[in-house]
Amino acid sequence: MVMADLETTPTLEDRITGVAEPAVLDYFISLNAGNYHATAALFSPDGVLNPPFEEPVVGREAIAAYLQAEAAGMQLHPHQGSVVFLEANGTAVQVKGKVQTSLFTVNVGWQFILNAQGKINSATINLLASLEELLPLRR
Questions:
Q1: What is the pTM of this model?
Q2: pLDDT by residue (tens digit) across 74-99?
Q3: By C-alpha distance, which of 75, 93, 89 is closest to 20?
């Protein structure tokens, strides 16, 4: 087999322009693979997941259980982001993209705060849609 015959698949890092933080990249990879315990392990022990319109989810076990119940079947498609190094030895990462479910696709923004060890202290998910776009999505 010659190299020209090999198809190259873009990595997630290639698709998130401006972001190379391992915890953030692994968040999207593990969540898309449905490996919610691996996703939760990326958080600090008292890490917080802030889903839209819901109470914060605190701690790795609670985050894994929440994702198992709420994220099954979702595919996250991050596209671009930015990184800001914080004075307190942490990092803030903003990512924009889309979330696709079996029923709809919506624009989403994620904000990650990473600690000095590269673990996620908090992940906040914001729907980037108008009220008119969100009303049909009610449960």
A1: 0.83
A2: 999 999 999 998 887 899 999 999 99
A3: 93
